[in-house]
Write a structure and sequence with these properties.
Chain B: Keywords: Cell membrane, Membrane, Transmembrane, Transmembrane helix, Transport. The structure holds two protein chains of two kinds. By secondary structure, chain A is mainly alpha-helical. Helix content of chain A is 68%, strand content 0%. Chain A has a domain of 167 residues: MetI-like fold, CATH 1.10.3720.10. Chain A has 14 helices and no strands. In chain A, helix 4 crosses helix 8 and helix 4 runs antiparallel to helix 11. Chain A is flat. Chain A starts with a helix and ends in a 6-residue tail after the last helix. Helix content of chain B is 74%, strand content 1%. In chain B, strands 1-2 form a two-stranded antiparallel ribbon. Chain B has one domain: Orthogonal Bundle (MetI-like fold). Classes of the chains: A mainly alpha, B mainly alpha.
Amino acid sequence: MTSTASTASNAALRRGAVHLMLAALSLLTLFPLLWMLSAAFTPNELITQRAFRLWPEEASLSNFRIAGEKHPIWWWLFNSVLTASAITLGKLAISLPAGYAFARLPFRGRRFLFGLVIATMSFPAVLAIIPTYIAVVKIQAFDTYSAMIVPSIPYIGFYVFYFRQAFRSLPDEMFEAARIDGCGIWKQFRDIAVPNVLPAIAALSVISFMGAWNIYLWGQLVLEDSARKTLTTGIAMFADVDGADTPWGPLMATSLLSVLPVLGLFLLAQRYIVQAFSSGTVEK
Amino acid sequence: MTRSFVAKLAPWLFVGPAVLSVVVFLYGPILASAGLSVVDWNLLSPQVDFVGLNNYRSLLANTDFQLSAWNTFLYCVILVPAQIVLPLLFAVMIHAVRGSRMERVYRGSLFLPTILAYSVAGVAWSRLLNPINGLFNEVLVFFGFGPSRWHTDPDLALLCVCLVTFWKSFGLNMLLWIAALANVPDTLREAARLDGAGPWRRFFSIELPLISPTAFFISVTTVFSVLDDIVGVVDVLTGGGPAGRSSNLLYFLWQQGLQFFQFGPASAVAMVSIAIVLAITCAQFWFGEKRVHYQ
């Protein structure tokens, strides 16, 4: 009796310790962001005063105003929304039908083509960058939205893989009835398959949007005019970050502006995102 | 007749756009890189000179290249084990408090940096690491240590990049581990417990073998993602410096090709990187496949 009681209290103690460690770990992980949040609302001239203060003494929105006077940050916001939406739509438009065909339509070379597409999952993006850049310059698409959007779409390995899994898990009977009714392949896809994988589509839309929102290197390269930049590439236009007189306030305010939309999406869709990232990837 | 023809054609129409786009935008450029790596050409010159393996030869003699290759090795040795083992540790802890109200909070907090842009991660950390008025130095000075130059110190730059890269990307592997642990049937844990196996024994004899497919998947993908993730962090935080001490192969490629417009040498770096990536993958499949236990 006593031994079970002591095991139980031991277990409770252990659980408490784990909670404590996880809480500390979470705070540590969030700290750079909290620190950014605090700076974004602290008037710039107070930021570098040498006193540690997480909560701004006099919160103000002045940093957003200053950043907006210096750089077209609201255009950057618009550009980020535009490019991220376009990239997401493009990815869905080509990876949904492909995932469907790889899952449910038999054809010659299916295994090979599937391998060809998903092998790109592990391509470091930098490897394709030089010829793509040359092509963009040659067709005079430099510094256009298309230059940002189009080459960012084909990174669809994971999407095709994931949609294939989703479509494969639909029961055959679902399609049998439609086939008997004379539904063609396109109608089966559009009216039966797609409406039944909406959670998967939602998850990958969010993941794609977040990824596209955060595109940095490629954007740095092909967007030059300040008014065409996205938030994440525009941030690099602020003064260098190692110096003594970095405009921390406006810089942090702009960074925060770029974090908030993806943070909101993440909080809304956390369950789906976690599911998408963790399911399917290990299936043999 | 037409109907069956359409039915035959349909799969191709479905996969066509996906296949074409990866061929044109991913495989095509890599082939083009192979071509660029054996010529001497830049965007302005009208003339393309075939130079054979000269670009590769001059790379081998280039000390910046050697340094970035060595750094790539260091990054892998430090970050790959860290990105595999620590997320597993965090996942085990989160698994231990599953069902509690805080589970989602911990998981969300630890995953959060993963959704940020590299530029934002770099900015967030640069204010901690800033050698003149950063928070870390204030803490050091407060405790009576001299200020450090952090990522602007040649000996610390690489470690600072490791720190920020780890912070930015450990969340994904953690999620994968959490999912794998959740898939281990509780009845097995319970059976082992009744047989007198302690927590450590249960972890190493029950859970670890059962999550080995995930371990294999993670070990393959982590090598790539580590190489790739670093490029963004390096660009924001150190620009490869000081004196190339925090550069890696892919960042060297980026600089050579797109800051100095040395397409030939940069493409040669791309080819070398692809060869390394392929070799590592093959090695992993060779050693890994046999040891993985599929349910």
